[in-house]
From TrEMBL:
GO terms for molecular function: hydrolase activity. It comes from the Eukaryota. InterPro entries: HAD-like_sf (IPR036412), HAD_sf (IPR023214), S-2-haloacid_dehalogenase (IPR051540). The keyword Hydrolase applies. The lineage of its organism: Eukaryota, Fungi, Dikarya, Basidiomycota, Agaricomycotina. The keyword Hydrolase applies. This is Putative haloacid dehalogenase. Keywords: Hydrolase.
Amino acid sequence: MDGIEALIFDVFGTTVDWRKSVVKELQEIGEKHGLPFSPEDWGDFADEWRVGYMENTRRIAGGGSGTNDVDTMHREILEGMLSSERWSKVGSVLDEPARKHLNFVWHRLEGWPDTVSGLYGLKKHTIVTCLSNGNIRLLVDMAKFADLPWDAIFSAALFDSYKPQVTRVVT
């Protein structure tokens, strides 16, 4: 990798397995409260939550209104889901502390099996950084939880933008 001084990685889906981590936490909630949902249902919940996030960030990146705090965005989407007919049983068993804890699952995502060793190997010869729509606190918490050895963390919030509005982030 002659001439390459730094590598910038995406985070969600690239270095961490967000879906498996979220589904695992949802299954634990379901088991604790005896909720009648299958692993596939919990996968649907995780996917719906993520789709809500993607729709919001795309709208905002395109000039629409909305928050640039991903924790707030995740919570708004979560509350909407928990009040929906499909997920109201989940909402009925989660008090405020439990909802807050669930919302912060995005701070506790596990890396893919080869992520940590791969990043440590790469950082021997290059600067290893990430660029994500996640806020700085989320990315720092996730790095500590999953042992992601970033040399620097870049949040799109630093640029008052969201990916995929790359021109604004890059310039």
